[in-house]
C-alpha cells in the first residue's frame, strides 16, 4: 500500500517544520504548505525527498483568502491522490488592543486561525473518510484563559477548540478530530517581554521544544485510534495556574 499522506499548514518553519520532519520520519508522505516562506519550504522538501524520493511536496496559499484555501485542498489531493491526516498548524498571532483593532485584524486573525481550518476540514473530509483519517488542530492554552490585549486571537482559538469538538461528533466514526494546545514552546518572533515569568509559571519550570508538539501530533494522528474530540495541553503544566497574562 502507498504511504499515508499528511497536509500540514504553515509548515516551512518552526513548529510546523518539526511536525513535517516527525511525520515523514515515521513513514508518511508530507505536503508542506507555506504563505511567504517559499525558500524554506523548498529546502525542507528537498532534504526529505533526498532521503526518500517523491515523499514531500510544497504548496503555496494565503489562508486569509477563502478561495485560495479551497484551491489548496484541491491541490493537496492532487499531489499524491489521497489524504490521511490534516494538521491545521498555520496561525497569525499579534496583539489587538480593543481600541485599535480593525476589520483587517479580524480578517487576518480569524481567517488563519479559524476559517481556513474549517474550509480545509470541509473540503478534505471526503478523502479523509476514505482512509479513516484524522484531523489535528493546533489550538492554544489561551483559547480558555485569555491573553491580555489579544482578544481577537483568543476568540479565534476558542472557536477552533469548539470546532475540534464539534467536528469530532459530526465526522465520526470515520474521521477522528483532536487538538494540541501548546504552552511555552517557541517565543513569538516579534519577542515577548515576560518570558521568564511564563516559564516560571509552568509546573515543570521550563519551556518545551517543537519536538514535544510534533510527537503529540504523531500520536494523536496515527497511534490513538480510540481518541477523538480531545484537546491535549502540551504546556509543562502552564494551564494549571494560568489566569490570563
TrEMBL record:
It comes from Alcanivorax jadensis T9. Gene3D superfamilies: NAD(P)-binding Rossmann-like Domain (3.40.50.720). Keywords: Oxidoreductase. This is Dehydrogenase/reductase. It comes from the Bacteria. Belongs to the short-chain dehydrogenases/reductases (SDR) family. Pfam families: adh_short_C2 (PF13561).
